[in-house]
Amino acid sequence: MKKVIVFAGSNSKQSINKQLAIYASSLVENSEITILDLNDFELPLFGVDLEADLGGQPKNAHKFLKYIEESDGIMLSLAEHNGAYSAAFKNLLDWMSRIEGKTFYGKPMLLMATSPGGRGGKSVLAMAQDRFPRHNANIIGVFSLPSFKENFNGSQITDQELNNTLKEKVEAFQKAL
């Protein structure tokens, strides 16, 4: 059975991106799904001086990276803060990349984002599509859900066209596992 890790690039306890990621993972068949929460991997703010003082990277960065390494695929929905990654996600990525520059190990990835607005996190998705391949991400599909509150009812996407698009992306992701 394939192992898929699912998480949001957000530390919000009510993250709409986590809701989207969990819903997308419910569409994956015959796989072991592990849902991760950035709040369970608290990390100090990255800095080279702190890294030197610690004598390396914090255990939580190693722990999260091990989940990636041991998975067969990654489903990630990025929160967009001022057009970029959330500080919590960027900090995690910074720490992990000091352990392993090829952070995503070539694992198939379904990259998603949602937001309350009509652009659906498109700025952060563009940033990730440019950056993540340099960290050995194998991005199989990209999905943007605009206007979260209008298009998600708490358990699923209500707009049939958007829902069908996500299902197609999940199917391609699953085939790549």
UniProtKB/TrEMBL annotation:
Domain called NADPH-dependent FMN reductase-like: residue spans: 3-141
Membrane-spanning residues: none
Pfam families xref list: FMN_red
Entry-linked InterPro entries: Flavoprotein-like_sf, FMN_Rdtase-like_dom, NAD(P)H-dep_reductase
Protein name from the UniProt record: NAD(P)H-dependent oxidoreductase
Organism whose genome encodes this protein: Snuella lapsa
